[in-house]
Amino acid sequence: MKKILATLLAVLMIASLVACGAKTDDKTLTVGATPAPHCEILEVAKELMAAKGYTLEIKEFNDYVIPNDSVEEGELDANYFQHITYMNNFNEEHGTHLVSVAGIHYEPFGLYAGQTATLEELAEGARIAVPNDGTNEARALLLLEQEGLIVLKEGVGLSATKSDIAENPMDLDIVEMEALQLTATLQDVDMAVINGNYAIDAGLKVADAVAVEAADGDAAEAYVNVLTVKEGNEENEAVLALVEALKSDEVKAFIEETYAGSVVPLF
What's the pTM value of the predicted model, to 2 decimals? Predict the structure, then answer.
């Protein structure tokens, strides 16, 4: 009986090793993404990958945390939804091991009108909503500073929070909320600084924004949206195939024709 059990155990171990080895030849890649523009861009890449024998499975998320946790835990092979600064901060705060394998595009932040149509019409005490997650809140505050609405403490840069507002001459009420909620509550505030992907989801165009983040400084570099994997998977064959597809002429043309400046390819 012991010999039979030992034989069965050996067979199971061999089968397990064969299965693990087979995974290196797997041409299926599972990627998490937020709906727009990321899932839409991935759909274009999906066709290009299929032509080369790869299967791209796209999992849609409306959240900024789960897609990163899922890559860290191996439930997803990659994700495409975040900018590089958010990813780096996420690693620091959560102890994850996420890395960028490619920078794909940049989404300019916009300040959109809610109850107040123009900057000139903003009244004292007006309510302006901003995303409440670290890097995106700083980015929103920098846009408000760009437009002369507030002054931040010197040197705070991408670490700026509401408490770093040094001057607020109009006594604006800066309302922090989840990025996902900004478009839904736009008509409840005077204005809101909205992430590019959520603005696109809501049918907002950057051309209609009251103010747009300047792209001639460090913004594009700091906020480039990246394809992310767990450290150690950078050279995965299917991942590299996806990078090639995302940086193709077909994807570039799709971005430029579809988003009218709300999404800017960086390749």
Answer: 0.76
